[in-house]
Amino acid sequence: MTNQSTGVSLKNSVRTSVCAVAMTATLAMPAAANNTAGQDTGQVVLAQQVEQDGASQRINLSGKLRMLSQRVTAAACYTQSGIDSEASADVLNAATKEFEDIIAGLEFGDENLGIFGAEERRKTLFGLGKLNEIWMPVGGLAHAVGDGNGSMDDVTSMAEQAAPLLEMAQTLVTEISGQYSNPAEIIQANAMRIDIAGRQRMLAQRMSKNVCLISAGINVEAATEELRGAAEIFETSLMALRNGMAAAGIQPPPNDEISDQLGEVAAIWGEVKPIVTMTLNGQMPDAEQLSLMFHRANALTGAMNTAVGMYSADSKQAT
Predict the structure, then answer these.
(1) From CA 168, how far away is CA 210, in angstroms rounded?
(2) How far is residue 192's CA from residue 231's CA, in Å, rounded to a whole number?
(3) pTM of full prediction above 0.90
(4) CATH 1.20.120 boundaries in the chain
(5) What is the mean pLDDT of residues 73-93?
(6) CA–CA separation, 279 and 21 (whole Å)
(7) How far apart are alpha carbons 211 and 223 in whole angstroms?
(8) Do the beta carbons of residue 17 and residue 235 sit within 8 Å?
């Protein structure tokens, strides 16, 4: 899958009918969910798992790979572009290490990650192998950029692999979620909200990545389509989460705490959206605006992480 085709898929998934929001988790990205501050799940089951083998952590951490697949390329672009180079390199190196630690932990087990015992299911091991196969060249370039030995050609190569990496990460998390979770243990209305909210954190990184790529003149046409689709899905989904959408089966926030947290997300989005809009209109952001995009997109991801944690806690109380 190319960046351009993924961008078109994103755009098409939010056209016309607001009922598409209910399908965002399925249609906005290829089949499958970014926790900077906690756990990136984006899946419909966040708890009530068999803990002996770290089942919930396997789901949580496999979901986090989706956000990291976009954050790595985003941070590499900002680093190589000289935008807050030290901070963006730190984010790049941390995201690279975390991606690799999670892949290894899911395969071999890692008690420090809360994953006990090696994976034994052949289909899951196959998925981990395919994901690692796509990751290896991306990871090598990420290390080079993070160490100060990279180039814009390296960033371009990473950008070209970002969509296949995300697609495979989503396929993997679907497999792991189905393997280790019990979907009957969560109310469908809660599942939908958690799934949609979980997508938002990854979309924040996808927008950040594409703003930087467009500014750097990398795959501009494909990045523009991907940025437009990600922004449309993010905003439409945020509106549905904040206000509810009965036609799509999405209920309003279940409590004031979640409502207030989504209000914080909306406030950060209000800072990010003008930069996204100007970029889509062909006006290139300057260094100050790119710095703002980098930092506030990270804040947007973190704020959505918090919201998903709140939804998770509320769903457990409701069951």
Answers:
(1) 19
(2) 20
(3) no
(4) 49-181
(5) 97
(6) 24
(7) 8
(8) no
Note the CATH number of domain 49-181. 1.20.120
Dist CA 276 CA 287 (whole Å) = 14
Closest CA to 33 of 45, 47, 21, 19: 45
**Residue type for position 187:** I
Q: Distance (Å, rounded) from C-alpha 62 to C-alpha 177?
A: 9
Residue 16, sorted as left (phi over 0), alpha (psi -120 to 50) or beta, turns out to be: left
Q: Which residues contact 86 (CB under 8 A, 6 or more apart)?
A: none
List, for residues 45-70, the tens digit of each pLDDT value.
Answer: 444 444 445 676 787 788 789 999 99
- Maximum Cα–Cα distance for the chain, whole Å? 53
* Residue 68, both tokens: 């990291």
Size of the chain in residues: 319
Token pair for residue 101?
A: 């630690």
CB-based burial, 1-13: b 16+ in 10 Å, e otherwise: eebbebbbbbbeb
Round to whole Å and give the CA distance between 42 and 237: 13
The b/e string for 273-303 (b: 16+ C-beta within 10 A; e otherwise) is: eebbeebbeeeebeeebbbbbbbbbbbbbbb
User: Which residue matches tokens 């899946």?
Assistant: 43
CA distance 58 to 272: 32
**Token duo for residue 134:** 């796509």
Percent residues over pLDDT 90 in the chain? 62
Closest CA to 199 of 278, 101, 54, 307: 307
Please state, in angstroms and rounded to a whole number, the distance separating the CA atoms of residues 310 and 226: 29
